[in-house]
Amino acid sequence: MKNEAREQEQVSVFGRSSPWRYPLALLAVFGVLWLALAIDPVFRQDWLLENALVFVSLPILVLTARRLRFSNFVYTCLFVFFSLHAIGAHYTYSLVPYDEWSRMLSGASLNESLGFGRNHYDRLIHFFYGLLVAPAAVEIFAHYGRYPRVWAALFPALFMASHAVIYELIEWAAAIVFGGDLGQAYLGTQGDIWDGQKDMACALTGTAITITIMAALGRLPVRRR
Predict the structure, then answer these.
(1) High-pLDDT (> 70) share of the chain, %
(2) Helices H, strands E: what count in the chain?
(3) Secondary structure letter of residue 223 according to DSSP
(4) Mean pLDDT for the chain?
(5) Is 224 inside any structural domain?
(6) Euclidean distance between CA atoms 59 and 56, whole angstroms
(7) What is the SS3 string spanning 193-210?
(8) Residue 222's beta-bridge partner residues?
């Protein structure tokens, strides 16, 4: 009986009708992308620091997947975010050559067109963190219950806001501990004394957009009377 149950479990995970095929496929694609970007990064020590997020988050997602299976939409959002983060880790965020890519594809400088005086890839990823990770926060709270309409929006928003603050504190602590070029590369302020505040603002903006859209679509865990 135990062998039969084990075989059925394997079929349910890897079989054609398995609800896990899509997230497993995304995980496999991300694994290939991550390995490719792990080859000869611009700054290996900074790459290791940046990938602490991956080393912690992905095992948690895998180990808790049976307890909380996110929707395919959330897995897609997380895949896009982690892929963009892997690109930033490969080049270091302040050196991602998106402006060179823009010149190659369109013949125009994106920085000049938008009036940017610095590399804004880090701000983009903080914005996408709010935009793409907030759906997971919504589904985490939905898994545990239903709430009055205001709290159904506030709980995931505050969850995301606290993570944005914690991440900036981690960056600050890493800059102090490691110092030198590694600390500066990881912190990525590029001379902007308000970098941390602007990063948090970008994350909160992305979060607000996502939660507003999910509220309009009726996707928040609102308690029905």
Answers:
(1) 88
(2) 11, 0
(3) P
(4) 88
(5) no
(6) 6
(7) CCHHHHHHHHHHHHHHHH
(8) 147
Give the structural domain span for 87.
2-216
Residue 185 has a pLDDT of 67
The number of domains in the chain is 1
Is 63 strand, coil or helix?
A: helix
d(CA 95, CA 149): 42
Instruction: Look at residue 195 and tell me if it is in a domain.
Output: yes
Return the sign of the alpha-carbon dihedral for residues 115, 119, 123, 126.
positive
27 within 8 A of 76, measured Cβ to Cβ:
no
In a domain, 223, yes or no: no
- The answer to whether residue 11 scores a pLDDT higher than 90 is no
Query: CA-CA distance, 120 to 49, in Å (whole number)?
Result: 20
Closest CA to 164 of 188, 200, 131, 120: 200
Query: For 130-166, what is each residue's pLDDT tens digit?
Result: 999 999 999 999 999 889 989 999 999 999 999 999 9
Q: Which residue has the tokens 């959330």?
A: 74
Q: Does residue 207 lie in a domain region?
A: yes
Return contacts of 60-63, CB within 8 angstroms, 24+ apart.
62/27
